[in-house]
Amino acid sequence: MDIITYNEKVFSPFLSKEEIDGIVGGLATQINADYSDIEEDVVLVSILDGSFIFMADLVRKLTFQFEVEFVKIRSYNGFESEGEIELILDLHKDIKGKHIIVIEDIVDTGLTIEKFIEQLQALNPNSVKVCSLLSKPDVHNDIINIDYVGKEIPPVFVIGYGLDIDGKGRNHHGIYQLEV
Ligand code: 5GP
User: Fold this and answer.
1) pTM above 0.70?
2) pLDDT at residue 79 is higher than 70
3) What CATH number did the domain enclosing 35 receive?
4) Annotated catalytic, 142?
5) 125 lines ligand 1 (CB under 6 A)
6) CA dihedral sign, ordered 88, 89, 92, 95
């Protein structure tokens, strides 16, 4: 992996394709163990845009039956309406009585996922769990319980494997960290 640049910002290698494969495989093993005997419907809800590559890799390693859904969330972190979210693309299925696994690329402050779970709970699912490829515990201070964490990372800004900088850089196989 080489250093890459976007808008004069320099990113250095952080996680290789092989390391990510191992992390996704480990998450799939845990989820398969927990859901293989469940009789009710299971729905994996992917939060776009960042989780689309992670979701595509993860679902192909799962061995039980499930449906998929995609949502798109606009969050207002850092603005006056701090912590508010708006669903730009909403669920299309009724999730009442179903087991939900929310698939997120990265949990930073945790506000997006916290608010989204509140909205899901109001729809009376059987259960809601969260799976995130990456998590920044120093930022969210465990305000949110993440049931399946791929890897805890320091509070750095990362791109690649679905994660963007100004909409770009999602296509890299590996994950890169912003040099400061
Ligand atoms: P939170 O509400 O947890 O603060 O924000 C979560 C969302 O912010 C993630 O789904 C992702 O879109 C974005 N985000 C947080 N940290 C990073 C990061 O290091 N890199 C990128 N590319 N996006 C991030």
Assistant:
1) yes
2) no
3) 3.40.50.2020
4) no
5) no
6) negative
